[in-house]
Amino acid sequence: MPEFIKIAGRSISRGERVKVDLEIPSLFDSAQMSIPLEVLRGNKDGPVLFISAAIHGDEVNGVEAIHQILRSSLLKNLQGTLIAAPIVNIYGFNNKSRYLPDRRDLNRCFPGSTKGSLGARLAEIIMREIITNCTHVIDLHTAAIHRTNLPQIRASFEGERAQETQELAESFGAPVMVKSNLRDGSFREAVRSQGIPMLLFEGGEALRFEPRIIRTINKGVFNVMRKIGMLKGKGKTPLKGLYAQKTAWVRASKSGVFKMDKKLGDVIKKGDVIARITDPLGTMVEPVISPYDGVVIGMNLVPLVMAGEALSNIGLFDDIEIIEEVLEHHEI
């Protein structure tokens, strides 16, 4: 670990705890904007972990989770450096919106460019000012608006440092781990291209503080910090999670009003009825049948659907028989 870490022109030495405003493009009225960061440096060498939330501005469970992490007494014995950004997409956050002011998705703008769109410029600043200092990254998300997700870790377990990434995913202790392919322009793709292990957490719904989800995040982050040597002690042994080989959405066969028969974390078998769609009078009922064996890891929360609209996201597993036994030990 270097003697100094430099962010936004500020040199931060070992043993310091500072707040940094990372300047980003201003608003239409020239009001200055910045990403608020807190940097905590231990007195001893160690990893540099970046935890981020609200890359999608309306996904706020991670915001409160980072607030609680920063107030934890566990950080008194920190070894290495923690860089925390509770609100990355400050534009979207202030508008209760997933997107940037130009309607772009920041999580499709990486690694960015100094001469590109607003999102590209913001992504370039994040990569240059923060990620160049880091050894590990945890990025916190929820489902998109009007959906909810079972707590899960998404990561790519291939290529450079794949084994370490897998060990970190398991140490987090989420009920489900999804082997997720990288997407062009995503933050995760850009970080991995730098050879940095990264976990993406998904859990809960947008525009909500959900204590259950926030507790899962906090436990997971501290588990990872212990795993990489930033905190002493082993803590509680993380609960065993399950690897989903892939995920698949079950979609509405017709438009109408639907009611879910299943909930997050339910184990389903091929042929099970997972929802029912009715007409406006409630007389015509069409069951939605699962074509898969798996676990409900995501759900649409709006009971009004058009034909083809996603209803339920199913995690697909190699060993369906042990799923119920594993999930019953998790708070889901």
Main features:
Aminopeptidase, alpha+beta, 332 residues, 2 domains, 20% helix, four-stranded antiparallel sheet, 32% strand, globular
Short synopsis of the structure:
The chain is α+β, with helices and mostly antiparallel strands.
> Which spans have pLDDT < 50 for at least 5 consecutive residues?
none
Radius of gyration: 21 Å
Estimate what percentage of residues fall within beta strands: 25-35%
Order of helices and strands: EEEEEHEHHEEHEHEHEEEEEEEEEH
Structural class: alpha+beta
> How confident overall, as mean pLDDT?
94
CATH hierarchy, class of the largest domain: Alpha Beta
Helix content: 10-25%
For the record, the CATH architecture of the largest domain stands as 3-Layer(aba) Sandwich
Major pleated sheet: 13 strands, mixed
- Give me the CATH fold name of the largest domain: Aminopeptidase
Total helical segments: 7
The CATH homologous superfamily of the largest domain corresponds to Zn peptidases
Q: What's the overall geometry?
A: globular
Measured distance between first and last alpha carbons = 38 Å
Number of strands: 19
Number of domains: 2
